[in-house]
Every structure is written in C-alpha cells, then in structure tokens.
Amino acid sequence: MTRAARVVIVGGGIVGAATAHQLTHVHRWSDVVLIDQGPLPYNVGSTSHAPGGVVAVSHNKLLAQMASYTSDLFSTLTDYDDAHRAFQRFGGVELARTPERFEDFVRLDAEMAGWGIPTRLLDPDEVGALLPFVDPAALAGGLFAEKSGLVRGYHAVGDLLRRAQERGLECLEKTGLDGIEVQEGQVKAVTTTNPAYRRIECDMVVIAANIWSPELTRHFGLEIPLMAFEHQYAITPALAEWEDYDPTDVDQEVTFPLVRDLDAAMYYRKHWQALGIGSYAHAPRAVASAEVGPTALRDFTPDDFAAAWELAQELVPLLRTRQPVFETAYNGMFAFSVDGMPIIGESLDVTGLWSANASWITHAGGVAKAVTEWMVEGTTEWDMRSCHLYRFQPHTTTRRYVQVVTAKNYRELYELHHPRESISEPRNVRTSALHQRHVDAEAEFTAFAGLELPNWYESNGDLLNRYGERIPRRADWAAMHWSPIQGAEHLTTRDHAGLFDLSGLSIIELAGAGACEFLDFLCTNRVDVPVGRVVYTCWLTADGGIKRDLTLARMAADRYWLFVGEGTLPMDLDWVLRHAPTGVSVRDISAAYSAVGIFGPAARSILTGASPADLANDAFGYYTGKWIDVGFSSVFAMRISYVGELGWELHIPSESSLDVWDALTDAGHGHGLRPAGLGAMDSLRLEKGYRLWGADIHTEYDVYEAGLGWTAKLDKDDFLGKAATERRKQTGLTRRLCCMTVEHHAATLLGNEPVYVDDKVIGHVTTANYGYSLDRYVAFAYLPIEHSSPGTAVEIEYTGVRYAGTVVEEPLFDPKMERMRA
Fold first, then answer.
1. Which of 376, 553, 690, 726 has the most crowded CB, counting CB atoms within 10 A?
2. What are the CA-CA distances from residue 777 to residues 137, 292, 343 (Å)?
3. pLDDT at 179
C-alpha cells in the first residue's frame, strides 16, 4: 500500500511525538505520519525507561531555553491513564556537596536570572526543609529550579500523539524505516517494514530516532556524531519510613522535587514508598548505533553500582542500614553527542531530510519547536549555531573521535567547567602551520575548532616587569585559564606591535560570471566594488536576524574571497552552497592558506622591514588588499584590524608560513614586536567595540539592534533579509547592544552576567573582558531602549555581588579611528 504525506517522522519517542505535536498544533499541518519500530506510546527507546527528570537549569542559554519551553509544554499535558500523572512540576533541587560547587550555583543562579528563568539559592537547612530524606550535613547548599519536574515519558508521548492525531497525524507502530527514496537530491518517499504501508510518499523526513539515528542516516551521507551510553537506574523496595504514602494514590507518587547530586554524578526521585536512584558514577559503557539492537534497555550491572550506593548512603540517611537490593534496576541507554548539544538541521545533499537528535527528555519540546520552525518557516526563534547539523569539523565525525569524546563527555557530565576552558581530550588533532614557532615561544594553547592556537605565550612573562601594575590580579575560579601575560600582550600591542596567528580564519572562494550578483544578494553591504577592495558585511536570515558577519575581498572581476571563522566554516559553507546559483563555483580553500596579523603603532615599520611593498596610506589604503612579497613569499595582505590598531592581515600559502613569520619576527627586532595570543585579541577587540559573532551578534538580533545598521544598504535592489530589515527599521528599536564599563577590579566579568536597573533584570552580558588600556572592565549587553542612553547607571552581578556600572558611548578606544588609519 502506498500512502502520501507531507512529512514522515521516524521515531516515536518524546522528540518525535513533540515534533508531531508542534507540526499539527502550532503550524497546523495535517498530513503528518509518524512511524516507530516498536509499540506506541510505550516504545523501545530511551523515552519509556527514562526516569523523567526535566532539568530547567544550564550554563548554556539555548539548553536553558529549550528546557524551559519543554517544561511549559509538559505542563499542558493531561494524564494518559488514571494510575500516574503525566508531568509533576514540583521543581528541582541541585545539590552541592562542596563549596566550589555552591560557588558555581551562585554563578548559575545569576545566569538564569539574566535569561528570565526562575531559580533561588538554598542553604543546607533550606535544602533539608524541601528534601527531608536528605542529610543537610553532607551539603554546602543547593539551587532550586522552579520549572524543573518529573515527566512519565510514555504518558507524555501518548498525550502528545493523541493531540496530534486529533489534527490529522497518523501513527504507525511496529513499523521500521527500511529506506528513503531520493530523486534529484529531493526526498520522495520512505519505505517501511510494515506490509500494510510499504511505501509512504512524502516531501520531508525527520529522523528523530536518537541512538539509532547514526546508522539510519549514514547511508545518505548524513553524519550524526553521537554515541549511546548505558546509564544505571534502580528503585528501592518500599521504605518503612515512607509507609504513610498510599501506593494507590496517584497524587502521592511524587511529593518531593527532583534531586540532582552533581558532585556524585547521581540523581534521585520518589516513586510512592520507594526511592529511585540514577547514577552516572561508573565507567562509560558505550554502545555504537549499529549495535544498539531492538531496545534501549540493558541488564543491570551491579558491580558498576557499588560506588554509587556508597555515595547514596552518604546523602540519604534512610539508606545507611540497607543493602543494595532493588525492586527494579536496569541499564538504560541515552545519547551523548560529541559536544553535548542536540543535532538539528536539514541535509545539504538531500533536500527534505532533517535531523532532530542527540536530545534528552529535558530538551525534547525545545528541539521539536526549533526543528519545526526551521522546516516550516525557514528560520527559528532561537539561534541554532550550537545545535546546527553542519557545525562539525570533519575530524569530529570520525569514528575514533566520536568514541573518545563522547566517553569523555560521559565521565565529565557533571564536572565543573569554566567558560574559558578548552576541550581536555583529544588534543593536538589539528595544528597550524606555525605550531612549532608557538611551541618554541612557550605558548599556552587552546583548541579552537580543534585547531591548537596560542592563548598567551609564557615567554612574554618579562613584559610583566613593564606592565604588571596595570593588570588586576585574579584569584581562584576567575584566574583559571587566564594569565596576566594576556594583559601584557594587550598593552605591548597598543604600545608597539603584536604578531598574531590568525589561522582560525577560513576562506570560501566564490568564482564565476554570476559571483558578484549572487554575493550582492547574499550580503547586506555592497560588494560590487573595485578589485582589491575589502568589505565588511553581514548575512541575514529571511526574517532579518544576523546569520553572521564577515569580511570579503574582491580578488578579480569574477572572484571573491570570503573570510569566516574556522569554528563556523561548515555552517557558513552550507549557507553559501544552499543559496549559490548554477554557474557560481564555491570552494573551501582554507587549507591552502594560513594567516598572521601584525597590528600596532609599529606595524608599518616592521612590515616595511620584511617587504619591499609601498605601505604608505596613499599606496595601501585602509580596507584594501593586494598581493605583496614578505620575506621569500607572496602573501595576500589586507589592511584591516580586529584589534583596533594600524595593521595588516597576511594570508599566506601554507607552505610559506614559517618563512613569513620569521621574516616579520626578524624585522620586529628593535620595534618591540611580540607574539600575542587569543586572550589579548579578545580584550583588544572589546575596547574597540568590535562584535563577536555567536555572542554579541547572531540570528536573534538584527543589524540595527547590534549597531551594524550601516552595513545594510537598503537602496540596493535586493538582498536576503532586506524586506524584514526594512520592516524592523520602520518599527524602531526596542533594545540595542550597549557598551558598559565597571571600574571595580573584583568584578571579573566573562559573559552571561545579569544586568540590573532599579533591582530589575533588564538583560545579560553578551561578552566582557578587562580593558587593560582603559583600566576598567568592558561589557556588552542588549538593553531596553529606555535604559540604553550613555550615562545610564546599571548594576552587573558577579558571584552574587552587584557592581556599579555605566552605559557609555562606544567605541571607547580610538573613537576617531586615527590609529587604524595612521
């Protein structure tokens, strides 16, 4: 039998069910089919055995938004039967056994306030009042999350599917995916194992099979880098201390908040008279997608639970006299992606093939909201950069990388992580062509998109003799992954010159007779400029959000180079390829070039010592580029600077990288030239007011809010997002990106801190750093227009203390551009 549908959803777990609900209820689609290899609503995946914790807190803003949305969605559910409640939002308590964890809760509580999600800090006695079965003496404190709760997975699936069926959804249980028919790069149909529905014609397929997805999609060139891991859950027999709870009363199944014991990598929930105990406190037990088999359940492994039982007895006194004997116990599988984030998006090679994977029940509603908005409207409310299907570098989808990193993610699931912390393993997977020079200069490396780049150089420690008094010291948590040498490199760049490895830049080349016309449509700024001209511009989504900012150079009449970040290259390449017309060649040429930047007042003198080129203003103007000789090599030089100083970006054939670096280093003797790392670059760009894509700007903001309206040439014939940009301009601003300063040196602002006016949260910090040239902290935040005027007094909270700040006019450094144009 052949059936026709608009979309087929593969997977009847919580993400698939929520996706069906979003499509039918929010977007009003009726011709939707959902298939699952097992029974419904109690399916064979993670949803049905998951203990059901919905955790509405995270240091990641997008995950917090997704969890909050999921909690609100689940709150609308009705019970699937009379024996259980579908969702019970008693909140959740995050437990801290150590002072360090509680300090992390202080930061988390502030972040959640900035994002508008309610939480509150608890002392040990307050934890004990909420959780009378927990020993307060074992704790340093806790954090209460109002929107956390407990959901019964198959109840949620059942109610979501029931609702969707009322709007036209057809559910096919015990129906596996056999294949996907593709014609000319477009989904045409799916074939199934169900004899009654062997073929279903459709335009779209959403793969929401989670731990089975990598194997299902690999045949279509779609890489889903995740791994299934066994996770232990055990339920005690009825406890005598809880005999007053009636096991026949549906309202007594859960009477306490969800509990997460983060320092022990464990969690707890009540089941009437019994206690459920979940544990990640055991060695990773990975299961490849092809080996998962017909169910996500595995036999319980008692030896793995030994350490967890001891930790449970420390926290829960009523367990201390008991043996680890359980009414129910099993190992259930959950998905871990290589970066801990969901994997959402449409295949570039097969139009209509979508991924909605690597999600837990906590974020399922948010994932469904995002993928359906993307499918139906082409844009999403939330910025998807950290969940994008094409965010992965090629090395991160290799089998070995997936194995190593997902196991690490399992081990480190509840560990404390610093926002400046780099990946712990694997390291040295990718190194720049200049890596040996950095090693020789004692670089402290960070992994940027897997590429080892200097954060600072220990060999620059002698600069502290000159600049040390101008660099506020940091202590404890704030000092992690930071060195005062970063401040010294910042200041010596301002005074003399810094030499930066810019290999974190990638190059996309567009060529062909239609390259100019196409690029003019893709970009907000004009690109039909003379050969050799450099342009700063933005790409926009159809609804006017900033897809990214970038610099481009016109290399020839029919050829352009687009300079984007290495970390976003796969997404950016995907964006260009999706829009490129026939006849325009699109090539990633990043591997063929490395890049260095030489910036500072002495930059022209140093570069003149290494190059015969005429570098005077009238010969090499600002925002121009040309091929010049440096040392024995020919490089493409652009007179631009992300650090706010006179300088050039030099894009070098990779095989010539060491020659150019050495030539510049030799020419820098006597001019105070020093190598400088990413730490200095960040504080330098912040003083100058340059935006950081992914933090200060992304798809949730438009060019006018971001202060980049000057790049949007509305008198052009057309560009992607123009109509929406015109509407936004006419509507006027309700918020804008503001620069703020804080003069108190104890406020080590790093980003995501809440901003207050009159004791009310009005925004959160997007990026921040110390302005070493200005002797104050500099921070950016989107503030309501009524609080955005220079001179407005604000408070910014850091580690539980609110510090006085002021909205200021930007840029703070070199506002007349005299240094850059020198």
1. 553
2. 39, 51, 36
3. 95
Q: Give yes or no: 231 in active site.
A: yes
Q: Which of 21, 231, 282, 438 is catalytic?
A: 231
Find the catalytic residue in 69, 267, 280, 467: 267
Q: In b/e form, how buried is each residue of 756-793, taking b as 16+ CB within 10 angstroms?
A: bbeeebbbbbbbbbbbbbbebbbbbbbbeeebbeeebe
Helix (H, G, I), strand (E, B) or coil at 329: strand
Where residue 1 falls among pLDDT bands split at 50, 70, 90?
Answer: low
> Mean pLDDT across the chain, nearest whole number?
96
- Residues contacting 472, CB < 8 A, separation 6+: 745, 770
Does pLDDT of 423 surpass 80?
yes
Q: What is the pLDDT of residue 220?
A: 84
Q: Look up 267 and say whether it is catalytic.
A: yes
How large a percentage of the chain has pLDDT more than 90?
A: 96
Whether 95 and 138 have beta carbons less than 8 Å apart is answered as no
Q: What are phi and psi of 140, to 5 degrees?
A: -100, -15
Residue 141 three-state SS? strand
Structure-block tokens of residue 276? 């459920």
- CA dihedral over 720, 726, 731, 736, signed as positive or negative: positive
Nearest to 497 by CA among 598, 585, 404: 598
- Is the pLDDT score of 95 beyond 80? yes
**pLDDT at site 83:** 78
Rounded Cα gap, residues 371 and 355, in angstroms:
8
Examine the residue annotation and report whether 263 is marked as an active-site residue of this protein. Answer: no
Does the pLDDT value for residue 82 go beyond 80?
A: no
* Catalytic one of 549, 572, 574, 702: 549
Could you count the other beta carbons within 10 Å of the beta carbon of residue 519?
23
pLDDT tens per residue, range 251-274: 999 999 999 999 999 999 999 999
